[in-house]
Amino acid sequence: MSATKPIKVYLQNDKPLIWSSTDAVKIREEWRIVGCLIGCLPRLPRQNNHLGLPLQLSKEEVTLLLEKGAILLLNDATGLKEPSEKERGEFIEYREASYQSQVDLFRAERKKEIYQNMANIIEGKKAKAQKEEKKDSSEATEPSEKEEDFSIDVDKVPIPPIPRKYSLVQIFTESPYRLDQEIPAEWSHPESKQEQLRYHVYRDLWNQGFFLSNGSKFGGDFLVYPGDPSRYHSHYIVICIPHNKPMSALDIVRMGRLGSNTDLYKEIPLGANGAGWGVSFLHCLDSTQRGLLPYCEASPH
Question: Domain tRNA intron endonuclease catalytic spans what residues (predicted)?
Answer without folding.
Answer: 197-262
